[in-house]
Each structure stands twice: as C-alpha cells, then as structure tokens.
Amino acid sequence: MLLFGIADAEQASSVLQQQHVTAHGIPCIWPPFERYSSADGMSFGRHCGVVWPHIQAFWAQAAAEHGRLDLFEHELRNLAGKARCDNQFAEIYHPITGAIYGGLQEGCVDEAGNKQIGEWESCARQTWSATGYLRMILMGLLGMHFDGGGISFQPSVPKDLTQLILTNLTYRSMILDIEIQGSGSTIQDFLLNGQAVPARRISASNTGRQHIVIRLG
C-alpha cells in the first residue's frame, strides 16, 4: 500500500500515524491473538506481536519514502543494535525486551505426546533478517530506487549522522562508491564523478567505477 503507491497522501499519513510500533520495532500483527497472551503481558504468538526484521525493513523503507524519518530511524537503530549485541541477525525478536524470541505456536508436543501451544525457536543467522538490514541501508539511508534505466537517489539520514560512505558496491557493469554528506532528506547537490547531475540518478548503461557524492541540507 505504501511502497507501491496505492495509498494517497492522506491515507499514507494515516497509516504511518496510527500503526502500532513497539519499543523494539513494528510487530508483524497487532493486537496479538488472545490465545497466546499471558497475565504478565510478556507472551506473544510466533506470527502476532513479535518483531520480524524483514517486516521491519519494509516498514522502515515506507516510512523513509513518506518523510517519517523518526519511524525509519527507530527501526534502523533497533535492528543495528541487535546485530551488534548478538553478533548476528536472528529470525524473530521479543517486542518488549528485544531478546531473541521465537514466540508461541501450536504443534509443540509434551512428554506425554500431547500437542499443545509452546515456545518455538528463533533461528539464528537468518538471511532475510540480514538482507532486511541491507534494505534499510540501501533503500532507506541511501535512498536508492532501482528501475530498468538505472538508480535514482533520495537519502533519509538521521540528524546525528553527518557522513555516510559506502564503497565497492557492484551494480551491473559498475562499481559504486557513494558518499553522503549532511543529514535529513533534502538534496542540495548531486555529483557523479565530480559533475552535477540534476536528475539525481545514475544510468544503467554506465561502466567502471562511479563516484557519487550527495550533499544534504
């Protein structure tokens, strides 16, 4: 709805304003299903209430593209913090504590062989969680938008980050070195190999090493 231009400006603003976001990121579904709830409010279903990083990534990108830098930053910092703390990107996280947490689901079997609701594993080193983080960097921070003709740029940089540098990014027949100076999302200058490019994009037909500098202000 937000990423594919289905929502108009008013609808997008409403979704971004009203969507429930937990302390550790957007939950996959909210409110949680009651059958997984506990008296202390700390139990959540595997597919309701918990935080899945690939969902965080889509939400973060949508927030960035619609000017909600605060929502984008919340997801980015949360997932980056978890990777730093755990030295990996896990499959699922607890929405309140931020701990690696698989959530509750039917199908567990007790010692007597009876099926019941139980806590499942949150698998380690998940590719979709890691690529979700990359999506936040490439399509959120750097604001890269890919189409058949090339890449356009619309960065979204939190205010306490004043310089971003990404080097040796392979794209088609190119190697991209990207530098962003300043913060926010208003582009003042877009330079490709030292030359101003008003269109703020790079053509897919270019070859070799390309140096991109984007100045925000």
UniProtKB/TrEMBL annotation:
Superkingdom assignment: Bacteria
Name of protein: Glycoside hydrolase family 65 C-terminal domain-containing protein
Originating organism: Dictyobacter kobayashii
One biological process term in Gene Ontology: carbohydrate metabolic process
UniProt lineage: Bacteria, Bacillati, Chloroflexota, Ktedonobacteria, Ktedonobacterales
Domain Glycoside hydrolase family 65 C-terminal: 144-188
Pfam families listed in its UniProt record: Glyco_hydro_65C
Signal sequence coordinates: none
